[in-house]
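Standup notes
- DV: blocked on the single-chain target, sequence here:
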Amino acid sequence: MGHHHGHGHGEGQGQGHGHGHSHDDMDWITMAGRLERYARIAAPMYGEVTDWLRRWVPEPGVVADIGSGPGAVSVLLAQAFPKARIIAADPEAELLERAREHAAAEGLADRFATVRAALPDDIGGVPRADLLWLCKSLHHVGDQGAALSALADHLAPGGAIALLEGGLNARSLPRDIGFGRPGLLARLEASDESWFNGMRAGLDGSTDATEDWPALLKAAGLRYEATRSFLLDLPAPVSDDTRAHLVEEFTLRREMHAERIDPEDLATFDRLLDADDPQSLHRRPDLFLLTAQTVHVAVKEA
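- DV (later): unblocked, structure below
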C-alpha cells in the first residue's frame, strides 16, 4: 500500500512518483523514519485536510488509515479527531509495530490499534469505519476499482472516504540552480512517470483505469461529494527537518534514476548531494518545499 518514496506511505512525500518500492529488500526502518519526518513537515497541510473533512464527519467514531505505513499520519488523525478510535492498516508487520510504538509515545495507545491488511482482497480485519483515509496507497493496487468497492463495504452508513491521489509533484529548487542544465526537476518528473508506468504494469491484477477518481468512487457505489487541493508551502530558508527530508528524497531519486538520466544531469545530481559543495542541497540558502495534495471525498448513503 502507500509507501512514500516519491510519495508514499503517507506518501506524502511529494517528489513525483519516486517510490523506490521493492518489498523484498526494503529497509523498513529507514523508510519509516523518512515517512515520520515527512509527516512532521507536512502536518500543517494534513491539519487543513482534516478540518475540511469535518464537513462530512464532524465526530467520527472510527477512523481507518489504509496503507498507514509506520502510522505517522495515523497519529495526526488521532490528534485531529480526539474522540475517534484509530485503526492503522498496512501489509507490513514491522511498520505496524512502529505505528503502535509511536501512538504509545504520544499517549494514544488506548484508542489506537493496528490491523494487517492489504488491498484489494485482504481487508477482512478492517472494522467498519466512519472515515477511511487513503493517502497515496490506492495507486499501489493493480485493480483500483476493486479495491475501492471492497473498501466501500467497510464504511459505516453516512461515513466518508478521503482519497488522497493526484495533486502536484513537489518543487524544491529554482529552475536555474546556477550549474548544470536548467530544468532538472522537470526532466526528473518525465523519468518518474516512466518509472511509475512500469510499477503499475508490474502489479498483480494490474488493470488500466482512467484516473478519474470521482468516477472510480461513484463506481464503488459511493456518493461523490467534493475535491479540493491543499498546499504545503515551506519557503526558503527551510528547517533542518525539511532540508534533511529533501536531501534524503534526492538521494533516493539519484538511485532510482541513475539508469534513466543523461550524464550531465547525473553530474548535477552528484553535485547537489555533495555535502562539501556550497551549492549542494546540504548548504544552499534557496531550498524550499512547495507541493499540493488533492483530496477527493465520497460518502456512503445512510
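- Follow-up: The longest helix spans residues 28-53.
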